[in-house]
Amino acid sequence: MLPGMSEASSNESVRELADIPAVEVISRAAVMLMSSAAEKLGLADDDPDTSARLDLDEARRVITALAGLVTASVEYLGPHAGPIRDGLQSLQRAFREASAHPDEPGKGPGEKYTGPVY
What we know:
Recombinase RecA; DUF1844
């Protein structure tokens, strides 16, 4: 049980999760990771280069986690796989563009799972 949760609310949360199809849980997790990466790349701001939220170290971690999730679950995503993969590749490209010294192809965030992104 998580801190601050009563046993009743914990059981309710577990029941609710049990009713959600796996593909939806995976898709929601992917969208959350994509949103986090976009924020950490400063993409929500008018000028990502001067964003106070720009944090490439954090963005690398989130993008790599997203790439691992997508790679491990692509067979279950059905029609959601294409858009999620496209979003991941867009974030990988945005990371490369935001980097003062871009990683070599195949060495960028998540590329050990997805292959090189140019």
